[in-house]
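INFO batch 0412 | record 1 of 1 | parsing
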Amino acid sequence: MVSDNRAGMLRVSILMYNVGLAARSLEEVRNCLRLDPDDKDCREHYGKVKKLANLISDAQTSADDEKWEKCLSLSNRILDLEGNNSDYVLQGKTLVCRCGARVQPAESLEACDYVIKRMGQSVDPHFDKAEVYINLEKYDEAEAEYRRILELEQNNHKATQGLKNVKNLKARGKKRDYYKILGVRRTANEKEIKQAYRELAGKNHPDRYTDEAEKKAAEKRFLDINDARDVLLDKNMRAQFDSGIDPKDPEAQAGNPFGSGSGFGSPHQFFTGSGPFGFNFHNFDPFGADGGHFEFHFG
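INFO prediction complete | emitting tokens
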């Protein structure tokens, strides 16, 4: 005979919820409902915890899939729902820092600072903050974040690579900036890039001009616009460009680590852990305990 301890299960579920373990809380309250699907108190708590647990799970999935805008929206909903619980605030702001760095860098800076303050010795929010600064073209500040990571983890090769990328970005100087050619943000998505290309290609097509000098200038602009489209719509070439290497410049390809399959397929892959986010929290996990039994399943 199965012991009917619904009240105890509910207490455990509420405790788990209050300390930031929404997924574990959901498991416990489901155990209660298995004993009695009509238990009023368990059903009420189930509705509350399921909503939050699903938000966190969906935000994680969106981040894994690099659906940054969706992730950011879901993360802000977590904060709206549980803005008075410091554990969920940390989880929400960790996601805002990571996902917002790619689509709303200026607005995500506060979240990164909050996570850095709470996380102590974790390197991961520093990587996200460096990403914020790169997308804002504040390369000195990005460099400082990578150096801070190396203070925390002297042999962190991804931080070392980050410093090299920042150096390349600084050295690029007056060379072609494909984002500026198309007039889009560094965080622009495929739809925005294609739209900008169509508008500029139509306005600058050489066939629109009869004057020889104007036609020649248009040909140069049109070539730049096409190159910008090619680079920014190709994941590998865009990754090279974001690391300070112009994939359309033969001279820049000399010594290019991307060309030899170095594994740096994305400029954002500067994380150190084995979990889905690559987080390494140095034994402090804001999403759960025991190294991966709850929301974020860290390795």
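INFO post-check: Residues 258-284, 289-299 have pLDDT under 50 and may be disordered.
INFO record closed
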